[in-house]
Amino acid sequence: MSTMASNPPVPKPSQSLVPHAQTDTEIRERLATSTELGLSHKEATRRLEQYGPNSIQTIGSVRWYEVLWRQFTDILILILVAAGLVSFLVGEPSDAIAIFAIVLLNGVLGFVQDWKAERSLSALREMLAPRCHVIRDGDELEIDATNVVPGDLVQIETGDRVPADLRVTRCMNLELDESALTGESVSSQKSTDPIDADSELADRTNMAWMGTAATGGRGLGIVVAT
Fold this sequence. Notes:
The protein has helices at 24-30, 41-51, 64-71, 75-89, 93-127, 179-182, and strands at residues 131-136, 139-144, 153-157, 165-177, 188-189, 207-208, 213-225. It has 226 residues and is of the alpha+beta class. It has 2 domains: 19-52 and 130-225, Calcium-transporting ATPase, cytoplasmic transduction domain A; 64-126. Strands 1, 2, 3, 4, 5, 6 and 7 form a 7-stranded antiparallel sheet that branches. Strand 1 (131-136) and strand 2 form a beta hairpin. It is elongated, with a radius of gyration of 24 Å. Belongs to the cation transport ATPase (P-type) (TC 3.A.3) family. Type IIA subfamily. Residues 18-92 form the Cation-transporting P-type ATPase N-terminal domain. Pfam families: Cation_ATPase_N, E1-E2_ATPase.
């Protein structure tokens, strides 16, 4: 009687692991990949179906007046507005003015925060790499960055944008501009050595973050999050 070959279990992405604190061997084993050959084409296709495309989900561009309108449609805000109207009707204009002032101030502050968040998200989308180079079955391929999956072996060279969060496994004078994330004006020199689990973002020199740009050198990294 013949038996059907079962697919190997698909590893989970990096929610539960701390990639910068692990060796590249541990990362490779955890994500069932190879630092030489990368994933197979078949496995990459399977993981793309499992995890979905490597992209920031969006419903569409949000206009400023839509963000402003949201600030005044929250149930608690509507209750405050109703309380203000009742105060006017019962002859307490000072209470009503105070309530409406709180509603207005809350709306303005909420709008400023939400609009900044929307603009930051738009800027991040523009930073994403449209194409990237990966190694699959030992061959270097240029693919859409949306098709990158956890476990992919990505090649980074000067001028490239990092398509997903990578654990650097090999580098030759690799430097990345991480100013948008860390505020540091000097490019970050990358290494392959494990870093303390509690280290700050700017100190995680064995990580290459999505959207950052290579300003020098070259390297390889395993995708740990998309």
